[in-house]
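Module 6 notes. Inverse folding takes a fixed backbone as the condition and produces residue identities as the prediction. Think of it as a translation problem where the source language is geometry and the target language is the twenty amino acids. Below is one complete input and output pair. Work through it position by position during the lab.
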């Protein structure tokens, strides 16, 4: 036990030491509700604006007033009497971004917490986040008069700041909330990646000292700076955001204090209803966010969200601890990557229910291809994100695959291979029956692998059974086409060579998945054997064709001058398929060892045809195929070197230049593919014995009963005949046999393999004539050579350890000579919002400002810090013991006894 504590102390010592990603996630909860803190020039919560994933500023701000002097700790303004607070450190966990802020004599943590609730999908689907202040202390140990204030903006609700917005303030039983939306909402429409039909909320629980106000931003700041409280008044002049920036403010007066008894908590959210328009077997339906199954109205949801804060905090802490401890068994860099990646995947999805909102069993999950396009449930993006979903709660997977499987089971879908997505215009998901075969192998294989991985990790084959005929059709397509793919492309860059090795092997692994599914579902032996034998023979042919004489996998068959990173081999590991021989893995590992020294600063490309292009998700999948720890960790380091360096220029992007680190345009800032960071953790998940679905088991039992009954009856008849003969022969009385098992007949009727196909093709047009500015996005920038920038140096071990930020910590306070006497507030336009700010614009426009540099020296830890550390260690230890106990308690059933016995 003592050693555990020591280990955890070391681990925590590391965990608080992090280098800086290009952008730190603040709220990442839905495709339309996410915000980031750009950090290429250092981490500072203030002096810059948080932005949407695409770089547009969001103008969300926070202030603290200490003894009459106001400091800005979040966001930016040009008002000379407002001083800048200083961000002294930051800390990232999978659900939280924690910033330690110093403002005059006050020091506190500001935390952005994004609930990830794998076992409560109502809470998970509520598109709200917490911003809270805790661990307040005063550096002089004395009490001071302290007030906090934060405001949000209607910028969340439109991509065009010239649109007129409206707002209101509501006083509920237990909270005060502001809301804002467009005056003319446009259902299911997007502008510049923003939804035009959302309502933004900003809320606080009722408590003493709470004040609120709506109005021109400078008026609110002025009011707070001079009075320390807002005026509790509503502005009723609805106008565009660009006109005297209408602002929604909430403030709290803590009185004279040197500590906080409760955290100061704001709730922020962006809600749309309905949230999705999609096809189903019954036709087109509008769907609502899943949380509506529990709440009558938004007031009730907001009250509950705020009241639940202490529990939400405990759950977030427990989830973070579990993930970080398990990831630390891999490597410290890996802990950082799973911490950065998770919110991107979870925040790209929306859990929905039917528009009637009264059926909690009606669940469908939709994912947007955030950072790349407007595609809905993009199959290969989901394939990359799958490890995180399997790890968090594999039961989510069928609800995400379901809308695709449903659509393709209807007569509206006529292809014999799987579709790439449900359409290209999120949040409208009407399906796409385009007959291009370009993605046929990628998509069919992804669907089969995901379906089987879900069955294997949950033991639940209901989805696989329900859509078996569809899956079989796709497997048959692969049997015919996957060994010599020609006329197909990969999802990576639309590479279209014939005989692409990595694409071919994905199809083969998928056929192997099909054979295991057929076996689990007790299909006829001929069918099981056909897939099994096909997978085996295709795999051995593939090994002959794809592996070069020197042992590495070539990009296309026979071309030993081009190599590929066959990252789809990860899927073979994930689904425990031994279809590809071990020597392929070991030879490939040896090959990587020769390539690693030649890798670009930010990693190995996935195909030597595209030697400049690196994808984080495929580096991490590849790490999962490597047995040797050093080589595996080298791949993790490649991903880490980019994700936690200032060479990146967007929120954790999927694809970037191997040398410069620059993100290719539309290559996935904030992309859900980063669920791939969980690739190694997903390999640790136990494989379950796959049960026949319940209804099948019942029927099987009945048939078996019938058979047994029949046999017993025959035996009985035989006995009777014998008895009769004996009696005839011996003319003696014999006792009659009574214990004949009754024939029970067939069990409850099982659903058929396929849904009945309904035709709703005539019903798919948009009916409200809305404007849809979103256009299909082109392929990523494929001209890496245009970016001839000199690559920055790689991350060194020393910068890795210096994450506590310092520098201007003494700057702002010392400028406040008369900090006790606030200077008169001079109203000015504190900022102007433009629609054109973007990542590129922001980073080039802002040189290094007063924000801090990562390479400053860390101050010594305080005894209060050590106390906290101790508490956290205790908690981690408890959590770990719990984990152990749980693992002991539910030993996974014997693996694959069903699948791999031959
Ligand atoms: C990026 O970091 C390196 C080393 O940490 C530093 O030398 C360089 O100036 C930084 N670049 C920017 C744009 O901040
Ligand atoms: C606060 O920081 C911003 C951004 O760096 C700067 O423009 C502003 O002048 C600073 N305010 C003061 C009072 O120093
Ligand atoms: C506040 O932030 C500091 C620095 O990151 C950290 O050491 C401390 O644990 C945080 N406090 C809480 C309650 O999270
Ligand atoms: C997964 O989600 C289901 C449905 O919400 C829930 O019953 C189950 O407990 C969850 N499992 C885990 C491991 O969270
Ligand atoms: C919201 O629902 C709750 C519970 O049903 C009810 O008490 C409350 O009056 C409703 N509030 C509004 C604003 O409709
Ligand atoms: C609720 O939804 C489930 C799943 O879609 C469906 O099977 C069930 O029939 C629905 N129940 C009602 C009462 O509509
Ligand atoms: C269907 O997919 C094709 C190919 O990806 C695309 O060009 C087309 O716009 C899509 N159509 C719809 C309605 O989504
Ligand atoms: C605030 O200062 C910045 C940087 O100097 C400038 O770009 C911006 O236009 C100023 N905003 C206003 C409202 O003056």
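Target side of the pair, the amino acids:
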């Amino acid at each position: 036990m003592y050693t555990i504590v020591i280990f955890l102390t070391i681990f925590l010592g590391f965990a608080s030491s992090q280098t800086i990603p290009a952008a730190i996630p603040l709220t990442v909860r839905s495709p339309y509700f996410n915000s980031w803190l750009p950090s290429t020039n250092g981490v500072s919560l203030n002096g810059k604006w948080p932005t949407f994933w695409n770089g547009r500023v969001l103008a969300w701000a926070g202030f603290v007033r200490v003894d009459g002097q106001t400091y800005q700790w979040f966001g930016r303004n040009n008002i000379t009497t407002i001083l800048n607070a200083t961000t002294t450190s930051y800390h990232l966990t999978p659900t939280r971004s924690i910033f330690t802020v110093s403002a005059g004599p006050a020091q506190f943590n500001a935390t952005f917490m994004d609930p990830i609730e794998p076992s409560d999908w109502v809470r998970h689907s509520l598109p709200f986040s917490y911003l809270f202040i805790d661990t307040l202390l005063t550096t002089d140990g004395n009490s001071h008069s302290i007030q906090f204030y934060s405001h949000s903006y209607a910028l969340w609700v439109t991509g065009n700041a010239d649109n007129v917005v409206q707002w209101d303030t509501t006083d509920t039983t237990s909270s005060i909330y502001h809301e804002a939306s467009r005056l003319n909402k446009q259902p299911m429409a997007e502008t510049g990646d923003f939804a035009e039909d959302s309502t933004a909320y900003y809320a606080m629980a009722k408590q003493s000292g709470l004040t609120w106000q709506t109005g021109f931003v400078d008026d609110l700041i002025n009011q707070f700076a001079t009075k320390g409280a807002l005026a509790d008044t509503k502005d009723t002049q609805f106008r565009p955001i660009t006109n005297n920036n209408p602002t929604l403010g909430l403030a709290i007066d803590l009185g004279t204090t040197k500590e906080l008894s409760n955290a100061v908590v704001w709730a922020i959210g962006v809600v749309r209803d309905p949230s999705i328009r999609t096809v189903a077997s019954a036709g087109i339906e509008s769907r609502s966010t899943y949380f509506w199954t529990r709440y009558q109205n938004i007031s009730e949801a907001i009250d509950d969200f705020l009241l639940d804060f202490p529990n939400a905090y405990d759950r977030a802490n427990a989830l973070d601890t579990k993930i970080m401890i398990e990831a630390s068994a891999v490597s410290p860099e890996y802990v950082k990557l799973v911490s950065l990646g998770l919110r991107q995947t979870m925040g790209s999805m929306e859990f929905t229910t039917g528009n009637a909102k009264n059926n909690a069993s009606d669940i469908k999950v939709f994912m947007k291809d955030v950072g790349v396009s407007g595609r809905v449930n993009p199959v290969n993006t989901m394939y990359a994100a799958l490890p995180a979903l399997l790890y968090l709660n594999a039961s989510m997977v069928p609800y995400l695959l379901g809308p695709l499987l449903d659509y393709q089971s209807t007569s509206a879908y006529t292809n014999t291979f799987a579709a790439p997505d449900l359409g290209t215009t999120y949040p409208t998901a009407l399906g796409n029956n385009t007959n291009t075969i370009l993605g046929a192998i990628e998509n069919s294989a992804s669907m089969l692998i995901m379906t089987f991985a879900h069955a294997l990790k949950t033991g639940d084959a209901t989805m696989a059974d329900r859509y078996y005929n569809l899956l079989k059709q796709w497997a048959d397509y692969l049997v015919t086409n996957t060994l010599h793919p020609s006329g197909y492309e990969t999802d990576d860059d639309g590479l279209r060579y014939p005989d692409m090795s990595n694409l071919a092997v994905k199809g083969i692994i998928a056929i192997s998945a099909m054979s295991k599914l057929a076996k689990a579902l007790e299909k006829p032996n001929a069918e099981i054997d056909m897939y099994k034998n096909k997978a085996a023979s295709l795999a051995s042919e593939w090994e002959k064709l794809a592996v070069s004489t020197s042992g590495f996998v070539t990009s296309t068959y026979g071309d030993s001058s081009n190599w590929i990173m066959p990252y789809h081999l990860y899927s073979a590991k994930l689904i425990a398929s031994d279809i590809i021989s071990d020597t392929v893995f070991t030879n490939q590992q040896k090959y990587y060892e020769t390539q690693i020294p030649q890798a670009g600063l930010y990693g190995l490309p996935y195909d030597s045809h595209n030697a400049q292009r690196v994808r984080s998700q495929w580096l991490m999948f590849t790490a999962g195929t490597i047995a040797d720890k050093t080589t595996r960790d080298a791949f993790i380091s490649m991903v880490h070197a980019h994700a936690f360096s200032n060479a990146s220029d967007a929120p954790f992007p999927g694809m970037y230049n191997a040398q410069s680190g620059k993100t290719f345009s539309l290559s996935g800032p904030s992309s859900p593919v980063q669920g791939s960071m969980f690739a190694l953790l997903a390999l640790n998940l136990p494989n379950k014995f796959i049960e026949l679905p319940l209804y099948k088991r019942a029927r099987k039992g009945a048939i078996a009963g019938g058979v047994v009954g029949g046999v017993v009856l025959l035996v009985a008849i035989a006995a009777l005949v014998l008895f009769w003969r004996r009696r005839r022969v011996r003319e003696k009385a014999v006792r009659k046999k009574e214990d004949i098992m009754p024939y029970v007949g067939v069990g409850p009727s099982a659903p058929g393999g396929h849904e009945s196909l309904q035709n709703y093709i005539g019903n798919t047009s948009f009916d409200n004539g809305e404007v849809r500015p979103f256009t299909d996005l082109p392929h990523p920038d494929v001209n890496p050579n245009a970016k001839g920038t000199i690559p920055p140096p790689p991350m060194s071990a020393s910068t890795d350890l210096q994450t506590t930020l310092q520098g201007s910590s003494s700057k702002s306070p010392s400028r406040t000579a008369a900090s006790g006497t606030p200077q008169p507030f001079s109203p000015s336009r504190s900022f102007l919002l433009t629609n054109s700010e973007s990542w590129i614009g922001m980073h080039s426009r802002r040189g290094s400002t007063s924000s801090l540099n990562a390479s400053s020296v860390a101050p010594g830890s305080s005894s209060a810090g050590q106390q906290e550390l101790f508490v956290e260690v205790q908690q981690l230890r408890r959590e770990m013991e719990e984990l152990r106990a749980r693992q002991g308690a539910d030993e996974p059933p014997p693996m694959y006894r069903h699948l791999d016995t031959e």
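Reference fact for the lab report: The chain has a mean pLDDT of 81.
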